[in-house]
Amino acid sequence: MIAGVWVEGLYLATQVAAETESNELLERIGEQKKILDQLLLILKNYQKQDVFYTKHPCARTNPVKRSL
Fold first, then answer.
1. CA angle 38, 21, 61 (to 5 degrees)
2. 3 state SS of 29
3. DSSP calls for 38-54
4. Do the Cβ atoms of 9 and 32 come closer than 8 Å?
5. Which domain range does residue 10 map to?
6. 40 near 7, Cβ under 8 Å?
7. C-beta of residue 25 within 8 angstroms of C-beta of residue 17
8. What is the pLDDT of residues 8-56, one digit of tens each?
9. Alpha-carbon span 8 to 46, nearest angstrom
10. pLDDT confidence of residue 31
11. At CA 5, angle to CA 11 and CA 25, rounded to 5?
């Protein structure tokens, strides 16, 4: 759930940033790379549990990480 909230918040922030000229907001979005690293560490604890298991649990986050 926390990952979904983070992704949605980041999405909303990027949409606002696209419509405004806020350097502060762009800095905050860039800072999310650190948060993503921490979030991935948390999620790795659950990657082998049957309820959460996928073949490549971080495959969908890599494009996000590269774009930050």
1. 25
2. helix
3. HHHHHHHTTTTSTTT--
4. no
5. 2-67
6. no
7. yes
8. 999 999 999 999 989 999 999 999 999 999 999 988 887 776 665 555 5
9. 21
10. 94
11. 40
Distances (CA, A) of 31 to 24, 28, 53: 11, 5, 28
User: Count of domains in the chain?
Assistant: 1
Composition of the chain by helix, strand, coil, percent to 5 = 70, 0, 30
Q: Which two tokens stand for residue 40?
A: 């991935």
φ, ψ for residue 32, nearest 5 deg: -65, -15
At a CB cut-off of 8 Å and minimum separation 6, what does 10 contact?
29, 32, 64
Q: pLDDT grade, residue 2 (50/70/90)?
A: confident
| pTM for the whole structure | 0.64
Tell me if residue 58 falls in helix, strand or coil: coil
